[in-house]
Each structure stands twice: as structure tokens, then as C-alpha cells.
Design brief:
With 349 residues, the protein is α/β, with parallel strands linked by helices. The protein has one domain: Alpha-Beta Barrel (TIM Barrel), CATH 3.20.20.80. It has eleven helices and ten strands. Strands 1-2-3-5-7-8 form a six-stranded parallel beta sheet. Strands 4-6 form a two-stranded parallel sheet. Helix 10 links the parallel strand 7 and strand 8.
Amino acid sequence: MAEGLRERGVRPDVALYHWDLPQALQRRGGWADRRVVDHFSRYASVVVGELGDLVGDWYTINEPWVVSMLGYQEGVFAPGISDWDAALAAGHHLLVAHGAAIGVIRDLAPDSRAGLALDCRPATPAGPSAEDAEATRHFDSYRNRWFFDPVFGKGYPADAERAFRERGRIPGGMESIARPGDMELIGAPIDFLGVNYYTTTEVSAGADEADEPAVPPGVSPPDGHTEMGWRIDPDGLEMFLRRVADEYAPASIVVSENGASFSDGPGPDGRIADRRRIDYLESHIAAVGRARAAGAPVDGYFVWSLLDNLEWASGYSQRFGLVWVDHTTGERTPKDSFHWYSALPRSVS
């Protein structure tokens, strides 16, 4: 496939891990078990060794927060575990595996770029009180900085770790999980940072760090929301990209996922008029442009997703694709957003 893409003038970008851990490794503890790091490093050696420099950007891990917190703490994604200690260990091992894979890519594909994709949830206080502001700071330290900080050599946020210990989690601290040299490996320089962005949230005092206020998913979302119940906030994307540039100074930023779920289907003429998705993408791409103009080194943007896909815990109920998929027959129909997006590079070139 990589060769075919290159022949057609398309640069392949590859994610080594997007939540698909072999069941045999999960039976041994999955990402909560330290041995998975060595398995991942060997796996990376095989894949990178085979594809080599055919790939433009190598993403080591996609969304370690989702893998660890939604999979091992909240239990809503695979493997369906609800254990804080397992979640924090899993998150650490994901980052160590990332660092190990960066070394593999450097050795085997020196002409490619190496990085990872971190998801984010920018937050603002729900009200003007100092308590809401403090809750927002805590939420940010758990939801965003817990992964962004160590990747850029700053270590785990001390305030978040202190809060975890006060709540009886990781009583031995992260030093009970991390081994000597881990933090240096995690903070190994990367060529680009992938940022996955969909929405923002408001935080109130008294919420647990895992709480993310949201509108429940539904096919008739309130104004200003997608069918996932996520608030449409392109300004949040601009501000977060500018923040990442200011706080972490990455060499390059790629918006590696951005998109919206709307279930617009074929009309009587077969056309799929998904105007809401076009409006969402148009406003968020404009936000990327504003961030670039302000100095954020954004040099890539990907829509999630090309096709209506299996959206993990939501199954086939949420449609993010530019292409409609009939889940009974498999027939594919480009939506209006597909045609709009395919013409976009030509319109701005």
C-alpha cells in the first residue's frame, strides 16, 4: 500500500499504535504490564524495517490518554478496566514505549519524521469563582499536561501527582512505576507533535478529575454541538495550538485528527448534503490558519475521518466520515463535504 500511495504522489503517514493491542498481551496485563514496552519496541522494529523511508511521518502512539484513562480507569473502552493504579501504569508504559519507538525510527528510517499524537480537551471555568478556576487548573493538569509535559521533558505535573496521592492513588508516587532513565526516554526529542482536537469543556468546582461535562450523544443535538454531544468551538483549537507553541515549542505541529459526527444521509437524489460538517471543518481550518499566523508551527491537518467508521464504544451510531458507508451493503457514497474538502487544496494553492 505504501508503494502505491507513493506512486500516486501521496505521502503515507503511519501510526504504529491506534488502540489495537493483541489479546495475548492483554491477558498478561496489557499496557499496565511493563513487559509490553519491549514487545512494542520489537514490533516497531519490524514495521519500520519493512516500510522504511516510504513513510513520511511515523506516529508512535495515538492518544495515550484515551488508551490509559478510558480503557484502564473509566473502563468505557477496551480492555474495560476501572483501576486508577493500572491506568497510571498503563499511561506511563505507553509513553516509555513511545520513547523507545522514537529510537527505532531514528535508526531504521532516518529520513522520516518521528512523533506521536496527543488528544486534548481545553477547559475553561464554568463560572467566575476562584474555586472554578482551581478546578479547571486541576482538570487541565490531569487531562492535558499529564501527557504533554513529560513528552517535552518537563516530567509529570507535580500538582496532578500530588492530587492523585491525596486521593489514595499511586501511594508510592510515579517513582513507584517509573524506572531510572524512563523520563529521559519519554522526553526524547520529536520531529513533530500530532494534536487531536474536537471540542472544549467547562469545569465546575467539586467535579472529579475524570468528569467532562457534555451533552449526551443524540441525532438531534442542541445548537452548537455535534451528535457526539461535543460543543463546536473552533476558537478553542486556535488557542490550544498557540498554547502548545508557547509552552512546549515543538518543531512542528500537525492537527492529526479533527472532525464532527453528523448523520446526514442520502436524499431522494442520492446526494448527501452534510452542510453542518462543512461548516465545522471550514471554521476549524480557519482557526488553524489564525494559529499559524500567530506563529504556531502547524504544517499539517487531517480530517477524522475519510469513511464512516466503527467509532469504538459508539459502534456505527456516529458518522464522522467524508464518505457515507451503508453499513448493510458496504456501499460508499461521497458526501458534499468530500467534494468540498477535495477542492480545498486547489482553492488555496
